[in-house]
Amino acid sequence: MALQCNRVLKSFSKWMKIFLPLPKMRFYPPQFIVRDPITKGVKRAFKSGNEVAIVVFTIKNLRELSNQLGQLGYTKFIACLKKTFREVIKLEIEEDDIIALHDYSSDGLTLFLSIDHNHHCVTEIDKRMRKIIREVEKNLYAEMPAAQPIFDTGYMFIEKKHYSIQEAILKANQQALAMAEKRVRSEFNDMLYTVNKIVAQKDIRMLAQPIINVATGEVKAWEMLTRGPKGTGLESPLQLFSIAKQTGMLYELEMIVFEKTLEQIKATGCTQDIFINFTPITLGNDRFIRDIKKMLLKNKSISPHQITLEITERDSIDGMDNFLYNIKVLRTLGFRIAVDDTGAGYASLHSISEIMPDIIKIDRSVIQDIDKNSVKESMLQGLLLIAREAGSLVVAEGIENKEEASVLSRNRVDLAQGYFYARPKALEKGLKSS
């Protein structure tokens, strides 16, 4: 296998010369990927508000072609292929959209494209890729009928919020190459493109739902809730975060939620407590503390003591090396920690024993129809005992009627939220802590 890889690498090393006449379309070898002008081109695209897509064209039967054509035939094939790609790409893609074309990983051709989300769509990108391959195959067949390469393609967008452009390029190329080797459904690409667009444009809305003191009826805090672009299939937070996770954009999306929340606190002058949801995957990310500190430095008027980080139970914390360490650091910074969805499964109870949270939020599944179900009230009482043992305040979620609220009152639940008290709305100015 190693010898085969070496032969392919040597074959492609012949491509490490200037490939296209335009300076920005020169054919750069792998070792120059982290140098100009590719990195500069990517940065320029980002600065102009565009995204950068890495498009990979691989030849599935490269080794067979080499054996079939022999050395002279293979050399002619490579020269013809270079010429054909140059001609087709110049016809199919506008010059301003091209950042670079080169042999990035010795597995095929890599095309860097500047993508304007306002004028391009995934369907159009797919169409261009298919047309390029069709035209290349047709032209190659006309000149060398014996050579019939089988192309695969894939693409991925480079992450803007990566600390290193070079690392972001490496990551995106690996993902694009994986897609090229086994093409995914166009529907998945559509979702990926849409989530990338939402993240790039920070196109989310933040609503706030009040958290009420059960005994007094006063608003004690607000939970920030995320909505995607209005009127789209991703307006629903469940759909938005589910797709973001599947497409590897969850961390970026959740950091935008935190950023937008700080902006709203600053804009409204709110001094009441604020709850923000995070998945364990994000809280355990090795970049999380660094990113949080940077955002706090930009918003020095906002104290971490005002913010509760609410851990949602979509993922288990087991095996997350940085998770518990990050929780400790966050507490030293002044943040409070809440565990969400308690009572919905074993994972939440396990999290309580591991984290010893400041606040426990009881899941709607326990609260629904609790006034009609004595077993559920017993469950609530058990969770209250656990909370007191852990030294945690309790928030009951999803209260929808006065009967449910009355059960909370007689069991002396600390705080509650739900449509019975108020629906989510925009955070308002002048919200002061009592």
Walk me through what this model shows:
- It is a single chain.
- The protein has 434 residues and is α/β, with parallel strands linked by helices.
- It folds into 2 domains: 2-196, 2-Layer Sandwich (Alpha-Beta Plaits); 202-416, EAL domain (TIM Barrel).
- 47% of the residues lie in helices and 17% in strands.
- The protein has 15 helices and 12 strands.
- The strands form 2 sheets. An 8-stranded mixed barrel has the order 5-6-7-8-9-10-11-12, surrounded by 4 helices.
- Strand 8 (307-311), helix 11 (323-333) and strand 9 form a beta-alpha-beta unit.
- Mean pLDDT is 81; it is low at 1-35.
Report strand order across the widest sheet. Answer: 5-6-7-8-9-10-11-12
The CATH fourth-level homologous superfamily of the largest domain: EAL domain
Q: What's the overall average pLDDT, rounded?
A: 81
**Mind telling me the C-alpha Rg?**
27 Å
Q: Could you spell the SSE succession in H and E letters?
A: HHEHEEHEHHEEHHEHHEHEHEHHEHE
Strand content: 15-25%
CATH topology of the largest domain: TIM Barrel
E-strand count: 12
End-to-end CA span:
70 Å
Largest beta-sheet details: 8 strands, mixed, barrel
Q: Structural class, judged by helices and strands? A: alpha/beta
Q: Work out the helix count.
A: 15
What share of residues is helical?
40-55%
Which ranges are low-confidence, i.e. pLDDT below 50, for 5 or more consecutive residues? 1-35
Judging from the principal axes of the Cα atoms, what is the shape?
Answer: elongated
What would CATH call the architecture of the largest domain? Alpha-Beta Barrel
The count of domains is 2
Reading off the top of the CATH hierarchy, the class of the largest domain is best stated as: Alpha Beta
